[in-house]
Amino acid sequence: MSKPAFVSLSKRYQEHKAAQPTASQLPDMQATLTVAASMIVTSYAYWFGAVPILFYYALWFSRTWYKGTFALRPSKEIVPGVMFALLVCASALWSQTAGQTLYTGLEFASTIACAIIMARVIPLPSLIKGIAWGTVVVLLIAIASGRYSGDPFSSRYALVGYFGSKNTVGLYADIALIAALPLFWFSKGWSGERWLGVLTAIIGFVALVQSRSSSSVLALLTAWSFLVLVRFVHVFRAKGRSFLFVLALIVIASIVLIGLAMGWQNVLFEATGRDATLTGRTYLWEKGIEIGMRNPFLGQGYNAFWTQGNPDAEFLWDMYFIPIRGGFHFHNTYVQMFVDFGFAGFALIGFIMIRNLVQSTRLILKERPSLVPVFCFSFSVLFFTRSFVEIDVVGPFGLLGMVFYMFPILLSAQKPEAMNG
Description:
It is a single chain. The chain has a two-stranded antiparallel sheet with strand order 1-2. A two-stranded antiparallel ribbon has the order 3-4. By secondary structure, the chain is mainly alpha-helical. It is 66% helix and 2% strand. The protein has one domain (5-419).
C-alpha cells in the first residue's frame, strides 16, 4: 500500500502557507482582509443600499491590473462562467421586464468578473482565512441580533438574523464549518490558524443548530462524509482508488434507495420538523417546471418571473406566506434556471456544476493531492448537495457563488506532477 496522502497534507499546507505569494498576488494579510471585508459588506448590503456594493467593486476591480498582470485575461478555464454571464445579460432581449433583467444581469456578470480576479490575486491560504474571519463576523452579528422567526410549515422557531431567512444563516454556518476544517486539520501545532479554525467551527456550529436548517445540515454532513470516504480510499494504491470510490458511491446509493423504500426518510422528517413535501418545496418544484415548459428553450429571462404583478408569482407569494412579495425563489437551482433560461440555462449551470465536481474529485483521488483539490472538493460537494434545495450560485454578490466560479482557475493552476500518482 502507498503512504496515505493525507498524512503529508499538514506538511504540504505549511509549505504552501509559508511560501510567498506570487508576484501577481496580494500579500497574505492584505488578501485575508480583502476577502473578509467583501464577505461582510455583501452579506448586509441590503440594509445600506449601494454604498457596500460600491465598496465591494472598489476592492476587486482596483486589482484588475495588479503588478503588471491583467487579472481578467482570457483563458479556457473561464469560458463556461463567461458564457453563463453572457446568457444572463442577453436574456434581457426576451424578458418581459427587460430593464430589471439587464440591471440584475450586469450585477451577476460583475460578480463572475470579481470571482476571476479573486482567483488570480488571492493566495489560497489567505482565501480560506478570509472566509473564516468573514463568516465569524457575519454569524456573530446574526446571533447577536436575537432575531428568530417561526416556520409556518414546521411550526418551529429558528434564527434568521438580519437576513430574515434561516436558510441563509444555515448557508453561512456551512461555509464556516467547511472553511474551519483545513485551518484546524492542516495547521501544525496550536498556531493562529488552528485557533481560528476552532473559533470558526464553534460559531458555525452554534449558528447551524439555531438556524434549524435541515438542508444546511444535510449538505454539511454530505461534504464531510465524502471527505471521510476519500480519506479511506487513499489508503490504497492510486490505480485502484477511482474504482473503490465509484464502488462506494454505488453502495451508498443502494442504501439510500433501500432506505427510501422502507420509509426511513420519515424518521428524518420527524426529527427535523419536516413533512413529505419538504415544507412545500415539492409543489414549488412542480409549479416551476410547469411554468418553465411555457418557454422551454430560453425561459422568461433572469429574475423576470419573481416580479410584482406576475399572477403566478403573486399566487406563490401568497401561498408561501411572503407578505413583502419579493425575495423568493424555487428552492432548486435547476428549476430556477429552467424558468429563467429554459433548457439552455439548465444545461449550462448543470455542466459547470458537474465539471467542478468531477475535476475536483479526480484531482483529490490522485497520489499526491494538495490543498487546492481538498478545498475545492469540499465546496464542490457542498454546492452540488445544496443545488437541489437552494440557488446559492446564481445570484449576484454571494461569496459562495464567487468561490464556485473560481474553481476552474484554482484547479487548472495545479502542476502536472501534483495530479499524477
